[in-house]
Amino acid sequence: MFAAQLVNQKFYGRTFMRSILLFPYVGPVVALAYTWTLLLDPNSGTINSLLVNYGVIEKPINLLGQKYLIVNILGFELKLRLALTTVIFFEIWRYFPLAFLFILARLQAIPKDLYEAADVDGAGPFRKFFYITLPQITAILSILFMIRFIWNFNKFEDIFLLTGGASGTLTLPISVYQQGFAVSNIGMGSAVSIVIVLLLISFMIIYFKLIGKKANEI
User: Fold this and answer.
1) How many angstroms separate the Cα of 171 from the Cα of each of 67, 88, 161, 198?
2) How far apart, in whole angstroms, are the C-alpha atoms of residue 122 and residue 189?
3) 40-69 average pLDDT score
4) What pLDDT score was predicted for residue 180?
5) What are the φ and ψ backbone dihedral angles of 81, each rounded to 5 degrees?
6) What's the pLDDT tens digit per position in 5-32?
């Protein structure tokens, strides 16, 4: 939302900036996942080398192969999900342009008269955002939530290319693949597939009963 607000303004190089922001989404997932794997490699990866050279960490960390990372903060030990968090950051980076495009398109469709009337009434930037912009894009945010939830629930290729489902990143679609093709357990793979379908149907019912209804009213 913040990026869409920025590039919705007029400035030099706006078209170039928009194309840069779209790159993670239009790039081939195999190439992007392979690049991330090389960058995060604990032995020869650029990220670990920089962190070690600048003294941020003492030794390289296997960001995609280590399940947990123990962090000591003020005497308290925190157990962080390392590989899963890294995969989540990859997903955020890769699919950020989709939400950015949806929101930007809706922002450009908002009538300028609303903002001009708000200027006449003396409304500031925050009041314009909360009383004009946010209500206008609520329906788009609702649709984005639905789309991204379904896609993330069915996510396979990104996680499979990054970790193969290891180190605490096993998802239901990867479990279906492993049961059906890796160990040839067709029955278990089919059962997990049915569970995925039932969960998604339940989500869609809840969405259209609650969130979708409110979005349509707006």
Assistant:
1) 14, 12, 13, 16
2) 61
3) 88
4) 86
5) -80, 100
6) 888 888 888 888 888 888 888 888 999 9
Q: Which of 41, 155, 21 is nearest to 88 (CA)?
A: 155
Condensed to tens digits (0 to 9), the pLDDT of residues 114-157 reads 888 888 888 888 888 888 898 889 888 888 888 888 988 888 99
Listed in sequence order, the DSSP H helices in 40-130 are 46-53, 82-109, 112-120, 125-128
User: What span, in angstroms and rounded, lies between the C-alpha atoms of 41 and 50?
Assistant: 12
Q: How many helices (H) and strands (E) does the chain have?
A: 12, 2
pLDDT at residue 1 tops 60? yes
Mean pLDDT of 183-205: 90
Radius of gyration (C-alpha) of the chain in whole angstroms:
22
Residue 79 main-chain phi, psi, to 5 deg:
-100, 105
Domain regions of the chain by residue span = 2-170
User: C-alpha 105: how far from its chain's center?
Assistant: 19
Residue partners of 35: CB distance under 8 A and separation at least 6:
none
Torsion sign across C-alpha atoms 144, 145, 150, 153: positive
- State the CATH class of domain 2-170: mainly alpha
Round to whole Å and give the CA distance between 53 and 59.
10
Are residues 107 and 137 in contact, defined by beta-carbon separation less than 8 angstroms?
yes
